[in-house]
Amino acid sequence: MKRGGIDQLSGVVAIAASMVFASALAGCAPDSSPSPAPPTLTSSTPSPTADDQLAPRGPTVSATVERVVDGDTVRVVVDGQRDDISVRLIGIDTPETVFPGRPVECFGPEATAFAEQLLDGARVLLEFDPTQGETDRFDRTLAYVWVVDPGGQTTLFNLAAIAGGYAREAQYAAPYAWQPEFLAAEETARSQDIGQWSACETSP
Question: Among 57, 110, 127, 140, which one carries the catalytic annotation?
Fold first, then answer.
């Protein structure tokens, strides 16, 4: 990944990171106890430091992004496997650019470009959330995607996309682990007219 992409990602999540810290102090953070990973994937869980408010809360696997489909869907190759899999990012929805029968939506190209710059070819961790199941109705693996920079630091892309106004928070099944942080990031982006919130006519 280009150095500039990492810098942009860090800048986008600065506001989101402060909100995560505030919600943690208020006792709003979801349960951090690890849950079993999908049985088809071998899981490993990193050890977050005391100062790291943004760290995976559930089991993870390492992977490499092979292709960005759009702002909320990527194809990855999991370490130790040969075939790539489609991953739908939990908790976000970006404007459509490739959905059959639908026109390209406002800010869709920008959301896809943001994902391509930060994820294409990147080393990532896929974090699983048992509240959402393993796959969606299109058989895409459901996960949060953490970008791993050259120094080994991780950044939650799902949250960065919301904080930058590229994605909306979206709950498709039961409430999910990172929902309080995602909702707070959307409220800030909306109130500050960031990204699609200023560029598009948006419904309440």
Answer: 140
